[in-house]
Design goal:
alpha/beta; globular; 8 strands; single chain; 6-stranded mixed sheet; 7 helices
C-alpha cells in the first residue's frame, strides 16, 4: 500500500485515535472501527498530523488533482488543523496564508466572521472528516462571498460510506456528494480501502488486528460507496 498512508494509519493507531472493535457511530450504526481526530491533542502528535496533511496536499498538487493558494479552517476543529498544516507546509518549503471563521460575527475591532489572511485565489478547506457536509457548505459560501474559489477539501480519513437509514441509503458517500455539488476534489490522507489494505499488510501493528478483517469487509459491503 501507499507508504505515506500506511505510516499515517500506524501513527493513528499508536496515538489511540484509530481503534478497532465494536462502536456505535453518531448515525447509530455498529462500526468495527472508530476514528477520533480530537485525540490528536498534544503538540507532538498535532505537529506530526499536520505534516501528513501537508505531504498529502503537496502530493495531490504534484499529481495535478489540486491547485491552491491558501488554506481555510472552518470553526472549530478546522482552525487548529489549518494553522498547523500551514506551518507544516512552510517547513516543507511551501509557505501559504491561512484564514478561519468565527461561529458568531464580531461587532467590534476588525468585526466580521473571518480571521487571518484575506480569502483570495484558490482555497483549500482543511477539516478532520466529512459527515453531513454542513461545515463544507458554510465554508464554500464564505469563500465565494469573498470572491475566492473553493479548490478542494483536505481531510484526515474518508470513511467512504453512504449516509441514510439501512433501507434508504444514499447513492454516494459524503465526500462524493461534496465533489458532485461543488465540483472540487476531497483529498484524504487515508480512507476505508487503505484500512482494509493495512490489515493485510506486513506492518507489525496489523497482525493483532486481523481478527477484525471479516467485520470490516461486511461493513464495507453494507455501507461502502
Amino acid at each position: 500500500m501507499n507508504p505515506l498512508r500506511q505510516q499515517f494509519i500506524e501513527f493513528a493507531l499508536q496515538a489511540g485515535v484509530l481503534k478497532f472493535g465494536e462502536f456505535v457511530t453518531k448515525a447509530g450504526r455498529k462500526s468495527p472501527y472508530f476514528f477520533n481526530a480530537g485525540l490528536f491533542n498534544r503538540g507532538a502528535t498535532l505537529g506530526k498530523l499536520a505534516r501528513f496533511y501537508g505531504q498529502t496536499l503537496l502530493a495531490a498538487a504534484r499529481e495535478g488533482r489540486v491547485r491552491f493558494d491558501m488554506l481555510f479552517g472552518p470553526a472549530y476543529k478546522g482552525i487548529t488543523l489549518a494553522a498547523a498544516t500551514a506551518i507544516a507546509l512552510a517547513e516543507l518549503g511551501h509557505d501559504v496564508a491561512f484564514a478561519y471563521n468565527r461561529k458568531e460575527a464580531k461587532d467590534h475591532g476588525e468585526g466580521g466572521v473571518l480571521v487571518g489572511a484575506p480569502l483570495a485565489g484558490r482555497v483549500v478547506i482543511v477539516d478532520d472528516v466529512i459527515t453531513a457536509g454542513t461545515s463544507v457548505r458554510e465554508s464554500v459560501d464564505l469563500i465565494r462571498q469573498a470572491g475566492a474559489v473553493p479548490a478542494a477539501v483536505l481531510i484526515a480519513l474518508d470513511r467512504r460510506e453512504r449516509a441514510g437509514a439501512d433501507g434508504a441509503l444514499s447513492a454516494h458517500s459524503a465526500a462524493q456528494e461534496v465533489t458532485r455539488q461543488y465540483g472540487m476534489p476531497v483529498v484524504a490522507i487515508a480512507d476505508l480501502d487503505d484500512l482494509m489494505a493495512f490489515l493485510d499488510s506486513d506492518s507489525p501493528l496489523a497482525a493483532p488486528l486481523r481478527p477484525h478483517r471479516e467485520a470490516m469487509l461486511a461493513y464495507r459491503a453494507r455501507y461502502g460507496a
